[in-house]
Amino acid sequence: MLNYTVHAMESMTEILREGGFASYPATERAIEEIVTLLDKAVKFELPDNGAIIDREKSLEVLDPELLHLPFPVVALEYAYTDESNIPDGSIAVPKRIALCFEYESNANNLLSNSALRSHPSLALVGGIVVIPVMFFQGMWVPASWGCVIPREDAATVLVSRVAFGHRDHPSFSRVGMTVLSNPGSSPSTATSPWSS
């Protein structure tokens, strides 16, 4: 049993308790929300590399009308062992959690609002927000971006990265949004959620 979620909650709670993000209130709030969501999440342990659907067939299996999580919040724990996909100069992060939540059941918090800014259609069609959490340099940390999957008609599949936290904190980079309007189309860049 991996038990990554419990360790991630303990690690991030300790960072918060020590005041590691006190100068960055938005980042601190985001991490508090992540800890709360991890606590509420139904945990699942995935096979190594998190692969449960063949990547070549994933779009065939994915029907946006049926795109729902089995519970409002889930934590998908997995070990990433395939180092063949890691680009040169990158660091392997073998312990990972995909924190996934239904936008509709978790609206009106910092993470949901960041997702809504990147995809206003979430308010109408709903969707899933995914926040990566990983064990990096001896501690569990959330990524500074997440994936938004709105429930759209099958002709339009939108996937984007959303940034959260505070733009001035050194560990969180300012991330633009990558929006794919249709599979196979080229990405376009939208504004960061931190833009005024």
Question: Describe it for me?
Answer:
By secondary structure, the protein is an alpha+beta fold. The chain has one domain (4-47, 64-80, 90-190). 24% of the residues lie in helices and 25% in strands. The chain has helices spanning 4-17, 25-40, 58-61, 110-118, 122-125, and strands at residues 42-45, 73-79, 95-102, 127-136, 139-142, 145-150, 160-163, 177-179, 188-190. The strands form 2 sheets. Strands 1, 2, 3, 4, 5, 6 and 7 form a 7-stranded mixed beta sheet that branches. Strands 8-9 form a two-stranded antiparallel ribbon. Helix 1 (4-17) runs antiparallel to helix 2. It is globular. It starts with a helix and ends in a 6-residue tail after the last strand. Mean pLDDT is 75; it is low at 153-196.
Show the helix and strand layout:
Elements: H1 4-17, H2 25-40, E1 42-45, H3 58-61, E2 73-79, E3 95-102, H4 110-118, H5 122-125, E4 127-136, E5 139-142, E6 145-150, E7 160-163, E8 177-179, E9 188-190
Parallel strand pairs: 1-2
Antiparallel strand pairs: 2-3, 3-4, 4-5, 4-6, 6-7, 8-9
Keywords:
single chain, 196 residues, alpha+beta, seven-stranded mixed β-sheet, two-stranded antiparallel ribbon, 24% helix, disordered C terminus
Q: Helix share of residues?
A: 10-25%
Mean pLDDT: 75
N-to-C SSE string, H for helix and E for strand: HHEHEEHHEEEEEE
Largest β-sheet summary: 7 strands, mixed
The percentage of residues in β strands lies in: 25-35%
